[in-house]
Amino acid sequence: MISFKFTDQGNRSGEEEQEEGPPIDEISQKKHFAEAVEKAKGAALRLLSQRSHSRKELITKLEEREHPHDAISSALDRLSEVGLQSDAEFADVFARSKWRQVKWAPAKIKQELTRRGIAPELVREAIESVFGPDGLSMRRYMEEELAEEQLGPWTPAAAPESALLVAASRQYQLTVGLSDEARKRRIVGWLQRRGHSWEVVSRVIKWLGEAEKEKTAAEEWPE
């Protein structure tokens, strides 16, 4: 494009001016940022290939690796958009894993998910997906569903409460040979480390004691 500039004296000069584009510095900055996003995305994918992570966990680990915060945010947004990172999925997998593998209580799972940056509504949904809307209702289960004529003292059922009792009974059998008090202390500690309330602990202890008595009686007085 031809344009004319006028000097202070009003003289016309026939200088050609190029149309202005983005400053070179701006282009360089955009390129640098895009590269930083790709690096952060690659690092995040490597972490996700090892195990599922919450967004907060990924941010913390990527910042420790000195990736720029803005690049991290953009990279994680892109991974979320294509379904490669999801806090909802992480919460569900985490809750199921901690219950099935180590029998964590709902309260302990909730506490840990919150610490990992999961939103309250996603925490609630994850807990309900594993334990149902009423949570781990040990009182209701033991009073209404664990009657011997329904399940028998050592029969597992589908309910989370039954799974806890079965796991606790296995732990209890590992203490055979110790005194009754020592066995009780061991199982109380095992339950409390998993975040179970004293109500749940006391009912499990009572159930284990009754089941042990029935087992002993059956061995002493076979049919």
Give a verbal description of the structure:
The chain is mainly α. The chain has three domains: 32-85, Orthogonal Bundle (Arc Repressor Mutant, subunit A), CATH 1.10.10.10; 87-131, Arc Repressor Mutant, subunit A, CATH 1.10.10; 140-217, no CATH class. The chain contains ten helices and two strands. It has a two-stranded antiparallel sheet. Strand 1 (5-6) and strand 2 form a beta hairpin. Helix 1 packs across helix 3 (69-81) and helix 5 (106-115) packs antiparallel against helix 6. The longest helix is centred in the first third of the chain and has 27 residues, at 24-50. The termini are far apart. Mean pLDDT is 80; it is low at 1-6, 12-16 and 143-158.
**Overall number of structural domains:** 3
Task: Estimate the mean pLDDT confidence.
Answer: 80
* Distance separating the two termini: 107 Å
Strand order of the largest sheet: 1-2
Q: Which regions are unreliable across 5 or more consecutive residues at pLDDT < 50?
A: 1-6, 12-16, 143-158
Which features characterize this protein?
223 residues, mainly alpha, Arc Repressor Mutant, subunit A, 3 domains, 2 strands, elongated, disordered N terminus
Can you describe this structure in just a few lines?
The chain is mainly α.
List the helices and strands and how they pair.
Blueprint: E1 5-6, E2 12-13, H1 24-50, H2 55-64, H3 69-81, H4 87-102, H5 106-115, H6 120-131, H7 138-145, H8 160-173, H9 180-192, H10 198-220
